[in-house]
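ligand=N,N-dimethyl-L-histidine
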Amino acid sequence: MTISEADSSSWTEEGVDEAATRHAVALAAAEGLLRADKRLPPWLLYDQRGSALFEEITELPEYYPTRTEAAIFAAHGAEMATTIGPGLALIDLGAGNCAKAARLFPLLEPKRYVAVDISVGFLRDALRRLQREQPHIAMAGVGQDFSTTLEIPAELVGSDRPVFFYPGSSIGNFEAADALALLRRIRERAAGGGLLIGVDLVKPKAILDAAYDDGLGVTAAFNRNALSHLNRLIGSDFAPRAWRHVAFYDAARARVEMHLEASADVEVAWPGGRRRFAAGERIHTENSCKYRVDAFRAMLLDAGFAVSRHWTDREGWFAVFWAPAP
Ligand code: AVI
């Protein structure tokens, strides 16, 4: 792990060769293509193009989560700040361009801001800009894949109350057991503070189907881009255009599933493997779990948080939970 200074903000990142690690991890991930239930890991959706496409998705009329969550913060942010209390170190998980947390600064008035993201380059620039605008907040960046490890150096939090911020319902992209494990990891590091988290709720299938299969085909491009990303990482020979985007809400499992479906019989090869796909065969690329308020509250309790509060929009489509960690 290395620490360096970036303007007045400090910086820590995993001391690894990121490209080599990604290549090895992607090669291992390609093994998922050999299973009966063919799958690729959802992180393949997020290279530079994938992140830009996701930004576009958040502005689509069909994709309600981002604007619904923003409306909840706009309507109830002041009450959230009163509930959470003062003297906090805000730890932003998956910070990206830091915009969501920055909008909360006037309400939460954090003494420290710690931005955590796997994508270090993007984060570094955003944090530099933010530090110039808000010189009174001590800022630090942590380059880390918090889905597997969550190590926040104690000196970045100091004696302030650690309040974790995990918006956007990204928790929904974990399967239940992994989501619970992540919540437990957060709980262990949140003593004296808590977790402010955005969660997408169960709703009618038609709304969810449209949100993940938009009319402009941006989500389809986002999904197919996982194949281009894999090609670049390991030298596989997927022809992304030959794969159809399939997304649907499975009410029994309370999750939206994204798949890529072969439009015709095709053989795909990669270093160390090859596989024939018949027309209509699918590769599972992402789950986006939707929760009922009671079920998510129970999960927070199970993870060791105290009884939570939550705020929703008028339709009850999305919720922001505050889960204290005494
Ligand atoms: C990032 N995550 C919360 C998004 C979601 O809604 O599950 C990713 C996404 N996949 C398709 N559209 C958006």
